[in-house]
Amino acid sequence: xxxxxxxxxxxxxxxxxxxxxxxxxxxxxxxxxxxxxxxxxxxxxxxxxxxxxxxxxxxxxxxxxxxxxxxxxxxxxxxxxxxxxxxxxxxxxxxxxxxxxxxxxxxxxxxxxxxxxxxxxxxxxxxxxxxxxxxxxxxxxxxxxxxxxxxxxxxxxxxxxxxxxxxxxxxxxxxxxxxxxxxxxxxxxxxxxxxxxxxxxxxxxxxxxxxxxxxxxxxxxxxxxxxxxxxxxxxxxxxxxxxxxxxxxxxxxxxxxxxxxxxxxxxxxxxxxxxxxxxxxxxxxxxxxxxxxxxxxxxxxxxxxxxxxxxxxxxxxxxxxxxxxxxxxxxxxxxxxxxxxxxxxxxxxxxxxxxxxxxxxxxxxxxxxxxxxxxxxxxxxxxxxxxxxxxxxxxxxxxxxxxxxxxxxxxxxxxxxxxxxxxxxxxxxxxxxxxxxxxxxxxxxxxxxxxxxxxxxxxxxxxxxxxxxxxxxxxxxxxxxxxxxxxxxxxxxxxxxxxxxxxxxxxxxxxxxxxxxxxxxxxxxxxxxxxxxxxxxxxxxxxxxxxxxxxxxxxxxxxxxxxxxxxxxxxxxxxxxxxxxxxxxxxxxxxxxxxxxxxxxxxxxxxxxxxxxxxxxxxxxxxxxxxxxxxxxxxxxxxxxxxxxxxxxxxxxxxxxxxxxxxxxxxxxxxxxxxxxxxxxxxxxxxxxxxxxxxxxxxxxxxxxxxxxxxxxxxxxxxxxxxxxxxxxxxxxxxxxxxxxxxxxxxxxxxxxxxxxxxxxxxxxxxxxxxxxxxxxxxxxxxxxxxxxxxxxxxxxxxxxxxxxxxxxxxxxxxxxxxxxxxxxxxxxxxxxxxxxxxxxxxxxxxxxxxxxxxxxxxxxxxxxxxxxxxxxxxxxxxxxxxxxxxxxxxxxxxxxxxxxxxxxxxxxxxxxxxxxxxxxxxxxxxxxxxxxxxxxxxxxxxxxxxxxxxxxxxxxxxxxxxxxxxx
Length: 968
What we know:
Largest sheet: 8 strands, parallel
Strand content: 5-15%
Mean pLDDT: 90
Number of strands: 17
């Protein structure tokens, strides 16, 4: 144990050291001055001014006054009108904004408010009419090209109200004249530009039309600017508009009409890396300066987002933001560039601007500085995150100390896994603290994390099983051929307790059931009886030959033909118990298709010499795995459960009873209440009840008999559906007995059953639920400009898939004696029932009982004409289609998270496509082994490894009479 504790401490120390090793630090030029301007928006659009708004603006501007000399606004209403007056209290200048869109009334109020603010506040240094109006393609209403409407101030005097009414009348008259006389001329000019563009050659027409539309809007914007300039003193309050740099370049008339050029240079949106951003901004500044000599050039927007997703080569991030801004201001100050940084404070409401919209501020929404302008660039919360990771990893490593004699390598792998999960938890914590969420995104993220928690637990359980099998100590409770049976073996002084073997049958093939009975007759054990009960099978062709055969086999064999039996298989077994010899101490159960080996009872009954043992289970095996390729891979899939899962569960005395090849102490069965019909997995139900009463159970992986595989893929799926539905019934029936003190189950038994149910029922159901939810997300990701965060949601899904793959391959190679090709087929078969199991769980949630479905075996059933993987094909195709859509629409943006999400969809399609593959295989020629043998022979002949067999040439045959020549 000391070694294990040392391993845990070593891994924890290594984890902490890795956080220290990978702590990022970046050098950047120090900036100790004051920024010339920051964009500042105190409220969301459509904000209604209320008491307290002024205090909020005052607190913001007080903080901002420590880092900047001025602020730039984007609106003059909805609370933004408070900014100039309050900014003056801190000696700050303001460049006020006018928001322009398609709403003519709102535009009029904005322009009028801006003009009024400029006249009444001496600290207003400019008016910016419109923000990327041309780039957004929103045509300015023609009404806004006319006179500027008057405004009525709050708390206006009677004289001011009277003046307002006079100005309003004058405004209405002038507006009517403008719309009557000037508007038609403007519209005619615009139509002329469009017609000229449409007359261009076809290869230039689209570009010409786009330019004409933009130019028409530019001309309208120019008229609005000219109106505003007439209303203010241009020498004190210059007027311009805010546009992307190329709009100024492509429409020089706009530059000539504005008092100065307010150009937006945002390298992120133009696919420049953070290392190229500053050079790009300087280059565009020089381009505009050269294009418009003598004109004042203001880089009115420059910035870099601190969070969000990449846009091709542009990577957002806190380090990138700090580095870009510090390098930019240093260069700008050196060359005398006039600039404004976008923006002062994060705006969480800008979620519609993609993943980066809310994160352009140099302050968070909580008004905390994101980075320092001097010294190395570091994450100030880095060690908080590291501490969370290390503590969670250590806490999740503690259960290792409860394991029975873990090895050093076993503890090492488990502790490394726990610390890996700790790092993921810390990443989630960090993501949650540095991002902003609207209700929908918070709900989606919470739902995703809720589904990921059991997925992570399942992955950890699978890694634990890998560690136990690959690095742990070998099985100690397993009954193997080489093991000495404890506490005693057969001998002269050991009695032979009577065993009553029960064989329930329902419409079973006669010859198959005869084989089962004959094998029982050959048992090398002196004291047993066999009760064969055929239930609910009125056709005498099925039961009469069996009745005769039992008579032939002798008095040990009892035959029962029971009609109208209630309670499915459990009901039949209850009747068999009524006909069981009173002196029978052990009950053996085998299915009607099982051919047992002669040494079954001789080898396993001695285990019951220990009075604490209530049950001994042997594995299932199948003798018809060579019927077809499908049956071959089915057989490999079954083997994994019996050679891996059951062996490991046996170490905790927590095996799953699976009916056939099972020996049960009669007294244990009686105390457990016998066979119950309230679930359709009566064997597992009874076994769990026996364990809950404190009996020991044992398992052997030695094959003591072989049965038959399901005839068809449909039968295979129906059997798995019954097992899953019955398993869920058992969960609902027994969950209360897993509470502390509710039964004699040990903590290890509770853990094994709980993880077993989660690992099977939970994993399959979660896989389907997550796949369907991701399908729903496809149009949102593709068309709503929203990406799934990779580190906390999509990458864990991929990691869980890789763990499941490694779990399957590693444990099969270590424990299951099959070839690699059969193992690959077994993996496909295991994945193919994901939809089936999830359907069973869903039905278990909404129903209490389903009819018992017999698994068709023995070759009597025929393949259904229906395609057996229809819904799997639909969902698998939709997942692949969703991935294709994401890859296609992401071609221009190349957002990494979207590509990863598309990859997740492909991975999630594999279980569904596996079902489709097996359904197709079942009906194809390649399912027959003869096809592969003939193909191998033909291939060998074609490449010369085997001589071609030619038909032998026989001696000429004697002509028949009709061929004899008749000479005339």
